[in-house]
Amino acid sequence: MKKLLALLLALLMVLSFAACQKEEAGEAEEEADYSFADGDQYEQIGGELNILNWGEYIDEELITLFEQETGVKVNYTELTSNEEMLIKLRAADSPYDLCFPSDYTIEKLLNEDLLQPLDMSKIPNAKNIQTRMLEVTNTFDPGNKYSLPYMWGTVGILYNTTMVDDVVDSWDILWNEKYAGQIWQYDSVRDAFAVSLLRLGYDMNSTNPDQIEAAKQELIKQIPLLKGLGTDNIRSSIINGKAALAVIYSGDAIMCMDENEDLAYVVPKEGSNLWFDNVVVLKNAKNVEAAHAFINFLNDGNLAARNTEYIGYSTPSQAAMDRLDEYYTKSDTFNPSDEILSRCGVYHDLGAFIEVYNKAWDEFKAAMGSNN
Amino acid sequence: MVKKAVRSLKYVYLGLMILFLYLPILYLIVFSFNDFHTGRRVSYANLGLWKGFSLQNYATLFSGEAGQALLLTLEIAAISSVVATIIGTAAAIGIYSMKKGPRNLVLNISQLPMVNPDLVTGITFMMLFAFVNALLTRLSLKQVGDMTKLLIAHISFSIPYVIFSVMPRLRQSSDLLYEAAMDLGCSPMQALWKAVIPDILPGISSGFVMALTMSLDDFVVSYFVSDLKSVLSVYIYSAARGARGVNPALATVIFIPLVTLLLVVNLRRLRKEREYEIQNKKVKLKDKGGK
Amino acid sequence: MKRKYFAYPYILWMVLFIAVPMLFILYYAVNVNGEWTLTKAWATLSDAGRWRILWLSVKMAFETTLICLVLGYPIAYILSNMNKTVAGFLSVLFFVPMWMNFVLRTYAWQAILEYFLPNLLGMKNGTLTGTEASVLMVLVYNFIPFMIMPLYNTLSKLDKSLLEAARDLGANSLITFVRVVLPLSVPGIVSGITMVFIPAITAFTVPALIGNGKYHLYGNEIELAFKTLSGQGDFAVGSTLSLILLLCVLISTLIMNHVDKDQQQGGQMW
């Protein structure tokens, strides 16, 4: 037995050694430029910084670089939905300093008094953010006092051109029986209901119970046509050609199209959601200084460009846009035209009315028992 | 001929079932050597596309959330199983000397966590802590954190397993040991420590192993109880539904030590049983005068 | 000091953390935000969709249990009739997967059913996830060791002289099996069923990962109520759903105890 253990240990050592070598080789191949655009200098801050963010939503190289520059140890946690984020932020002794909630969740967090105002004097790089972005974020964070946009985009349909032969320009195609079993719906109350409400010609922030009911009925009708309800797991499924159509965020769409040339993205004519994920500092943050330094760091023109290239989502930074090549800036998915944007609207926190949505969502899920 | 066919059919069936049971584990182990890079990004979600051999997955396995989750899992399992063993053993000794009525009542309530689905155990703890934390907030006191919540939950669902592995041992052990030790001048603690415990040690140790396994294995209760901290299984569940997927190398590092441990334990046991059997046979042979 | 005092710390613990939490299910079912009301509980109970999900879940759990029994019994039987050393080794082989994190194994099945098997079968754009059959298969996969274990324990302790006696009395192996082995293994069958049926009703990870979030079973419904709705959980709905679940558990436990008792009292089932 001892011999076996020794053998195992030896094997493990060989494995880890080989792995190290591989890593070094990998580093040599990449020549991404991570210098500061304005030659910023960061002071040693130290301590820890606890960050909560969506999955695959940052270039990890940036975290390493930030740790080197400031001596801060970053603890980074990933999750998949705004609802989950709320649970974590409301929890007893929530350790988080910094997170990246979406528009309507920021309204909610503001109402629950969980955020602290940003000290803009510590974020000089905020100047890089386009004013047209701040005009929109102003609608859910009045005066842009508590948050700064991190990424933004639209919601649309990603489809495989080899599997779909109809013209895709309307949410209607997601109810087309021809594609039964090949459609991904988004597993989140607001997004799924927005799709259904817009398709019926209603407002996606509707607070009319009859409209919610109608939208729910349509979602129930859609169940037999669905491959499933997913969030981040939709990506690999559609990249690998296992689904024809999916409701998806524009940034995810870019990432998928990078990996599979047959994919295309459309913002339907009925309109869609224009969303923002903003960076906020929590009220009970322990390392406020590091949090501000990190926000400034993310808004560096060059680093923001690297970050947006890595994750595929659109950056609100003009300095970053100036550094990106045409593949991004000319793309309707990455940089939607004014015509597309004019069709899109922002989610708002619905206050107590969200209960009506939740109840309808619960009933929609309950209906799955009889529609399979 | 027919017998032979039946016998080989048996082995085919066993083989197929073993393949069925091990297929997902093998699949993960094979893919743990896959290169998951697309450009600079690493995504384990493409768990069906072989891109080439790499050992990178092992190098990055425990950096970040997975490592923290593993440490937390081991920490919780170690603390909760020790505490559960102490409380559970004391409880078993106490319950054993109770009168029949109260004893049955206590034993029946103790069975609840074993009979209840994990889901129910999980949500009852979730509601208990929500209630307590709301109360504490109203009294402007500090709320109960994740670590405490996880420990209380794990200790609670482990104790019954300790009690029910110690009880049978107590039944075999003599009732008079404790009293005799006291008569000889031992304090209650000494009597317990020197006379009773050594006699029921096998029961205690198997109870400890059960508690440890229960804690390491738990997903559902931890999932409902903790808001911030993820034990390994909870991490896997959220990563499985997330963008990045789960690093398949995790399967290898759980599987290899597990198999090694079980093989060592069982081979030793089997060898003992074998020796015992041979002894028995010899005795029988002698008895029967060689058949 | 009396020995029973040693149990007192535990009894306190038990009351606080085992008995009282159970009462919270009742409390939150009828107390919504500090107000005593039955409206939410009633609304939950009168939703036909939820009953259909319960029915679907019970059906799936029943099928899972049945398949586990049919597939697992032969394994336990073959193992119990083998040379002890080989059987010991093989039984370990059958139980090892139980110690591997089941979420991780279910995750592997997701990849196998989404990519590996369809590609192997030449279905380029096809997939095997998201169907009732695939959810059922992975449920069987997860629970079959829990069926084999008690069956193997019972069968390997079976008094072999009884079988010899039956054969001596002229019974062929089929009759011996049906009249002797099967009735004697009922305790194993009963504990196997209890170890599979109830957990299978409440399984929510398998439907979530294998059913593409589209196979929504009773466990998922409870998870949704407690975990995901507006980020704070709807305790009233969740508690009411759990009460119904506990009722199911109670009924099936009573049935199982009844069967078990009949057997122990020597009542002939067959």
Give a verbal description of the structure:
The complex is a heterotrimer of chains A (about 375), B (about 290) and C (about 270). Helices cover about 45% and strands about 15% of the residues of chain A. Chain A has about 375 residues and is α/β, with parallel strands linked by helices. Chain A folds into two domains: about 50-150 and about 275-335, Periplasmic binding protein-like II (D-Maltodextrin-Binding Protein, domain 2, 3-Layer(aba) Sandwich); about 155-275 and about 345-370, D-Maltodextrin-Binding Protein, domain 2. In chain A, strands 1, 2, 3, 4, 5, 6, 7, 8, 9, 10 and 11 form an eleven-stranded mixed β-sheet that branches. In chain A, α6 (about 190-200) packs across α7 and α7 packs parallel to α15 (about 355-365). The longest helix of chain A has 28 residues, at about 1-30. The N and C termini of chain A lie far apart (about 50 Å). In chain B, strands 1-2 form a two-stranded antiparallel sheet. In chain B, β1 and β2 (about 40) form a beta hairpin. Chain B starts with a helix and ends with a helix. Chain B has eleven helices and two strands, in the order αββαααααααααα. Chain B has helices at about 1-30, 55-60, 65-95, 100-115, 120-140, 145-170, 175-185, 190-215, 220-225, 230-240, 250-290; strands spanning about 35-40, 40. In chain B, α1 packs antiparallel against α11, α6 (about 145-170) packs across α8 (about 190-215) and α7 (about 175-185) runs antiparallel to α8. Chain B folds into two domains: about 65-245, MetI-like fold (Orthogonal Bundle), CATH 1.10.3720.10; about 250-290. Chain B is flat. Chain C has a two-stranded antiparallel ribbon. In chain C, β1 and β2 (about 35) form a beta hairpin. In chain C, α3 (about 50-80) packs across α6, α6 (about 130-155) packs antiparallel against α9 (about 185-200) and α9 packs antiparallel against α12. Chain C is globular, with a radius of gyration of 23 Å. Classes of the chains: A alpha/beta (about 375), B mainly alpha (about 290), C mainly alpha (about 270). Chains B and C meet through α1, α3, α4, α5 and α6 of B and α1, α3, α4, α5 and α6 of C.
